[in-house]
Structure formats: C-alpha cells, structure tokens
Records
---
Amino acid sequence: MGKLKKSEIITANEMRCSCGQKSSCTVESILTIDDRGQMVLPKDVRERAGIKPGDKLALISWEKEGSICCLALMKTENLSGMVKEVLSPILNDTGAE
C-alpha cells in the first residue's frame, strides 16, 4: 500500500466517531511488541470493543515533524462510515454516489 497524498489524508479534526464530545481517552494497557512485530490486545479490551477473531482493524497514525507520534486502532466497519461522511459532500457536489 503506497503513501497517501496530502489531499487524501483525513486529519484528526475530520475524524469523527459516535463517542461524542464528552468522551475521554484512557490508557487501557501497556502492550509489548515481540520480535515478529506482533502484540496482544488484552481480552477485556477486546470484549468491551466488540473485537472478535477475524475482525479487521485499521491502524491510523498521526505524524508530527516527519515521525509518527500517535497510533490508534479502529474497527474497519467504523472507519468506512467516517470515510463516507467525509467524502459524501464531495460526491454530492460532483453528482456521483
């Protein structure tokens, strides 16, 4: 997968979820990356997030001064809704959809 063009990047301000304005960030756990680059999401986090075997997650990154500074995981089913929401005004302007 190639790098996205600047115009294709969804900024943090454009990303929306159904958590609402009063939601907060929480450090759920500290993960260790093994020699193969793998990590384990704790069972309680998977259960609360509704993540089951076979689910697909999108890895989202934020970059600052040429280095990735933040990472987030999101179920792809939620990501597609956000992308549609961001692209919908553009598609409506062109008459496509």
---
Amino acid sequence: MALARGRFEDLAWVTGWDVAFADLYLDALTLHRASPDAVAGPWRLAFGAAPGLPPEAHVLLGMNAHINYDLPQSLIAVIPSEDFASPSLLDRRRRDHERIDDVLASRIAEEDVALQRVGGRRTPLDRLLAPVNRRASRAFLRESRRKVWANTYALHAARLEGPAAYAVRVSDLEAASAERVADLLRPGPVLVRLAVHGFGVTL
C-alpha cells in the first residue's frame, strides 16, 4: 500500500528490494521444510521455537531472523558495488530504507490487536503498559534499521575482498542474530528492554 501511495523516492528499486527481501524468508522456509538442520541459525531458532510460546515471542523471533539477518543481505543484493561509489545514490537508498520505519510504525497498533486475536496474553499490567510498549516498538525498530544499514556497509566491504571474506561476514551476522534469541525470550517487559538496550546486531 505504501508503494502505491508513492511514499518512496525510487519506486522501482524499492519494489525490487521488497521481492529480494521476501525471497530470503521464502527460501529459508522452503529449506526448513526440506532439511530443518540446514537452515541458517536465526531461522532455525524461529521455525523451531516451542509452539507454547506467546505469539509475541514468535513474532520477535521471526523479526530477528528477517530484519537482523536477512535485511542487510537483501540490501546487498539490490545495491551493486558500483552504487556504493555514488554518495547521492546511496543517500536515496538510505532515505527509502528509513521510510520503512514510518510504514512499520503505522502498523504497530493494528498488529497488536491481531496478536491479541490469536491468543496474545494480556494481563492488567500489559494493558496498562500498552502505550509504552507501542512507543518502545517504534524506538527499537528505528534502532535496528540503523544497525542494518551499518551492517550493509560491512557486508559490502567484505564483498570487495571476495567471496570467502563475504561468507565469513555473513556467518558472523548469522551468529550475532542467533545470539539475540536468548534475550528475546528472557522473562520481563521485553519490548521496553529492547527499546533501552536495542534489538539490532552489529558486525
């Protein structure tokens, strides 16, 4: 819907990026169904999470894999090496990347309602903290996307060194994203904790 409303500077590029980003999830899901042990660590932990976890936990595990692990790789897929030599072009890409924050922020309340409908637990304290949690979600989404952009630069630098160096950095990204899972599942007000300490990972 945001694409149709013309909220981005380069509609064609964002459309191609959206496809590349979605394909990483679909590829991970297909591989998981065929060979669960072969899928990358963050997705293995998300797909293999205990069914009894609250819906919010499953969402955070999927977000961790798709944002922290997949998103920098999708940006590398649609920003070729030569584009990094053009500061003006990269600024356009960065601005469109940041505009996703506004799209996500506009959906937080709606997604919260959807989680409640599928069994999200809401204690009286949860209901009291709902406005705080929504602000916290906006904060950690912005923070994670800034780190994604920095990680894209790190992956690009490795790409210039060659396939072996790039594979090492992707492996580092996989490990860092998988390590985030323990904190995401730790008891307590996770959304507030993420807003304070961060959701993203750094290469």
---
Amino acid sequence: MITIGQLAQYVGISTKTIRVYHAKGLLPEPPRDAAGYRRYSAQDLVELIKIRTLAEAGVPLARIATLTSGSTAELRSAAGELEADLTTRIDRLVATRARLRELGAGHSPFLPGEVERHLERLHELGFSDRWIGLERDLWILTFATSPDTAHRFFTDQTAAQADPVLGRLYLEYDRAHDLDPNDPALAELAERVVDAAIERYSLDDLARDSAEAELPRLVQSSINASSPAWERLDALIRAGLRRAIATHAPTST
C-alpha cells in the first residue's frame, strides 16, 4: 500500500489533482490506515494512469469514468468524436487568429476589404465624412443581415457612384443635407433622381424592391433623422417612384 504522495510521484501529477479525481468520482476513495491516511493499491495506480492518459489526450473529465471501464471499441469511437470536436475548435481558433491579424493590420472586422476600399475612395470623389459614415453603417447592417443581397447591392452601388451622371446625383444628395427643407432645389433633385432610377432599373424591379424594402426603409428613416432636407428629398423621390410604378402597372378590366 502506498500514500497519496507516492501515488502522485509515480504517476507524475499533483496530490491536488488526485483529490479532484476523487471529488469527480473518477477514482474511488481508498481505505485509510489507523492514522487516518489514505492507502492506495497497485490497482489504484493502474486506474490513475488510465485517467491521466485520457485527460492528457483531451478527454473531458465527465467522460473519463465511462471510458476507463469501457471496451476498446467504445474508446475508439469516443476518440473519433473527440478528434472531430477538436478539429472544429482548431478551425475556429485559426479563423479567430486570422481576424486578430487583420485587426492588428488595421483592417475593419465589420466589412469585407473591398467595401472598406470603396469607402476610402469616396473621400477622393468628394463625399463628406458624414455621408461616408452613414454608408459604412448601412453596409455593416446589410452585410450582417443579408450577405448575399449585400454583395449584389454593393456591386450595383459602386458602379452607380462611378458613373459620371449618377455619381454627381449622389454628391448632390450628400450636399443637400443642410438645405432648407422647402428649398425648390430639392424637388428638382428628386425629379432627376427618379428619372435616373427609371433609366437604370426596370419599373418592375423598382416595384419589387419597394415591396421588399423593410430593412432599407429602417435605414433610410435613421438617415433622414439627421436632416429635414434629406427627409423631404426621400419623400419626394418615393412619391415620384410610386407615380411612375402606378402609371406603368396594367389596369384591370
């Protein structure tokens, strides 16, 4: 019979760890001698070696008790499951490390690199910091909630902003922020925006996007809150598009 200190020395673990195994029910409490000290047998040593081996292999303590007494087939099956779980955790850690490296390099964790590069180019095109900030928030929301749709919208908008005529309309929209909401220039700008939208997209597409635009409306309402002029401009554009769609819609007989 050996003491807990000798047992720990033979197996290469601490006495505290052995007490944890007792508390978890992995290793039964041995009988005590007349002085009250635990006395362990060779079989306890064998069981402790099994426990230590499985623990070092990454087997959770909650599963060790069943595996030490199970068959070789059960141990092999459990090892396969644990390896699959470990592979998943490793993949997540690798992805986390990649994101941390991007953060360390100054890259945004919220948007794809192509979107960040596009936002940087907007400065060169003359857009205000206010506009760029609002557009960044819009893309963060869109890519987080609907990534497939976001890529389609992003491709379309970058092409529109690169177009000389449409790009100028975007700039005028940006600069209208501080206008008086009753300024006649807003109605004229809204009319040109509606004409450009009808020329670029089919009325059927505009009608469908309008019907499915709950999230864009939420975003637009937040944008409008920063400027009474933008709020009126948005209302004028929506009214113009509704008139065009209604005119285009077939009448029933």
